[in-house]
Input
Amino acid sequence: DCPPTVEAWLKRRESTRAEARDVLWTSRVRQAIQHNKKHRDQPPLLVGLWALLNLADRRGRHQEGVNKLKERFEGPYKISKVFDNGQDITLELPEGDHRHSIFHISKVKRFFLPEELSGVNQSDFV
Output
């Protein structure tokens, strides 16, 4: 048996590369299908709406007790500004709260008033 020529080696290498590229593309499509099965777009957060602040970053340091019993969200707070193409928002935090008032949208979720309280003014919650 003779060693393969350079041309044959390059041809085999290119076909292997093309096959790997096709397998990766197929894998990407499958992953996107799986992701999109359960993913749904959130409605945009707009100025004047109310939002709850995720406490995941503060829970361990500022709350005592068992993690699974700790509150997950705090608020509601009024959204006063939306910027960076809707990726960041400014919340109206209460007086004396020394946290930075700008949050990424991944750290907040929209607050919906329960139906039984629909006659109550949302500003009563702050």
The domain at 50-125 is CATH 2.30.30 (SH3 type barrels.). The beta strands are 50-54, 73-83, 88-92, 102-104, 108-110. The chain has two domains: 1-40, 50-125.
